[in-house]
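User: quick one, sequence for these C-alpha cells?
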C-alpha cells in the first residue's frame, strides 16, 4: 500500500487543521492506520491509530481530547482532525499502515509539516 499525507501548514495556537492520508494499492480495509509525528531533534512518536473498521481508536495522552482520527474506507483515506493546537504540536506528521494481523506499522507515507505559532 502507498500512502500520501497532506493538509499540513502554519496555524496559530488554538487553531485547527485536518490532515488527510490517501492510500492506494491494496485493499485499504485490510489495514489498521496510524498517525505519528516527529519534532526536530526528537524521536518519532505515536499520535493516534484506528482499526480497520473504524470502531477502535487509540490516542497518545498528549493529544487525547483535542485530536480525532477517522477513516473513510470507501475513499481510501484516513484523517486526523487537530483542534486546540499548541506550539508543542509542531512536527512532521506521517501516516502509516499495519496489516490487521500484523504487529508493526510497516508502510509509511511522506510526512506533512504542521507548524503551530504562539
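Assistant:
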Amino acid at each position: 500500500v502507498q500512502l500520501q499525507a497532506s493538509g499540513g501548514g502554519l496555524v496559530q495556537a488554538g487553531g485547527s487543521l485536518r490532515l488527510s492520508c490517501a492510500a492506494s494499492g491494496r485493499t485499504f480495509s485490510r489495514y489498521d492506520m496510524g498517525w505519528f509525528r516527529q519534532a526536530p531533534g526528537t524521536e518519532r512518536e505515536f499520535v493516534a491509530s484506528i482499526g480497520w473498521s473504524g470502531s477502535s481508536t487509540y490516542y497518545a495522552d498528549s493529544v487525547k481530547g483535542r485530536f480525532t482520527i477517522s477513516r473513510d474506507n470507501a475513499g481510501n483515506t484516513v484523517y486526523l482532525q487537530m483542534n486546540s493546537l499548541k506550539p508543542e504540536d509542531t512536527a512532521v506528521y506521517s501516516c502509516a499502515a499495519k496489516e490487521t494481523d500484523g504487529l508493526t506499522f510497516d508502510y509509511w507515507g511522506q510526512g506533512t509539516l504542521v507548524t503551530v505559532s504562539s
